[in-house]
Amino acid sequence: MVASPRFLRYTVGGWAAAALTVALVGGMSGAALAQADPVRPLNQASSSLSIAAGQQLMTEASAAIAEQNYDLAEEKLKQARDSFNQISTFYQELAQMFVGVDTQINRSNREKALETAQLRDQASYQLALVYRSQNQPNEAVPLLMEILRSQQPTRELGQRAYQQLFELGFVDEPYAGRAATTPAEPATPAE
């Protein structure tokens, strides 16, 4: 059963109702619908499923750190980390769906998954530093380990995470970025 255009106009609201009405009634394809709508809601910083929203949370966390408001910084960094992780997971799933179906879509979503995984790891690192500054090493160590699993010790962020583990006394041996015996792997898209 297809809802009436009048019903959609009142329940969905705004531009989405008009676009959805045209799509349902006129049989417009998804690509045509995207072209007809210049404002893509998930590209806006107001959407929790946008990279811009996660980056805004990171900016707010940095401002809170500068003001030594570590509770607010912790809250913003947790939100950013969760958001980036969810987005990365979705992009990774999309990439997998298009393996062998459409190489360009697969590649595009894989790149987005890696980009958001990197942002997630940066948020995790900042959160670990906040925990460290509050003398909460038991909270910092699991985050640093997640970063190392994702980044590997051969990448810059992985090396910084390992250095934090060393400074906390969790590991005994320092790591100075020695050449790896196996090739470095890229960041994993999601936990």
The dominant shape is flat
Low-confidence parts: 1-26
* Helix-and-strand structural type: mainly alpha
> Based on DSSP secondary structure assignment, what is the total number of beta strands?
0
The main β sheet shows up as: none
Classify the beta-strand content into a percent band: under 5%
Would you list the SSEs in sequence order as H and E? HHHHHHHH
Average predicted confidence as pLDDT: 79
Give the radius of gyration. 21 Å
The total number of structural domains is 2
Distance between the termini: 39 Å
Question: Helix tally?
Answer: 8
Percentage of helical residues?
Answer: 55-70%
Summed up, what is this model?
With 191 residues, the chain is mainly alpha-helical. It has eight helices and no strands. The protein has two domains: 5-39, no CATH class; 51-168, no CATH class.
